[in-house]
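Bug #77: duplicate submission created two jobs. Keeping one. Sequence:
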Amino acid sequence: MRFWTSMVYAPVEHYLPVAEALDELGYEGVLLADHLFSVRETVSPYPYSADGTPPWPGAVPFPDVWVTAAALAARTRRLRFGSAVYIAPARDVFGLAKQVGTLAALAPDRVALGVGVGWMREEFDLTGQAFGTRGRRLDEMIDVMRALWAGDWTEYHGRHYDFTGVRMLPAPASPVPLWCGGYSRPALRRAAALCDGWIGVFPDADRGRQIVTALREQLDEHGRDPAGFRIVASVPALGSVEAVEEWEQLGVTDVIVQPWASSARGDSTERHVGGGAALDLSTMVSAVESFAARLAPAFQPS
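Kept job's structure:
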């Protein structure tokens, strides 16, 4: 099993030393969360809470994913970097393709792009991107970015993007994995039809099984081999090697953990813990060391 660590809510000043520890311990990679800004009063309901309120205060930092990943890549040897998830349709497709493609060229085979449609209308309004068409635009963005990353002269003629005679360099030496987040049927379809994997959180074991089943059905519907499809998930009840093996048998290929957040609760699952208590660096490093030691037989460094 491959283990990714989510850095959401962690103090930004601890990112570099924690990444160095993860690199040495055999973790697969680091996942970085994305929001452009917080909004004091938002009209957009958060879709994953009962009252529509986001589970973090406005003071939580969301450092730029690609600037952060570049800094971490320069300080590590083999660690991979991904976004969980990047609100791609709130951005210009050419700018995003340039950022990710450049990083993938500088850090070959160490970059993955997890994308989602987003939920906060204000991020779209203030960046000049249409909120209502974000899903359909994301479908096209996936094709556009892959074409641009090929490094050749390319053209694209879609409903939302239409261009010809464009070439973007530097190009990644190998394809950048694209994972889609989201739980709706369109999101699962997008992952199975257009992407290399799905990324997200299993709220509980039953919901996790439902998501895996739905993804397999979608893969079959689109004639795709599930063998090469990644399911990157934060899973419940991950306290033993046997539990890891059970999720692996179900179809999970990569597990998201946040050991410093889970150690106080007695489990190993990342959850939205909020931005309240400050985290001590030694506590974070000790937690990732303890987690790796406890599940050492399950680690399969790439």
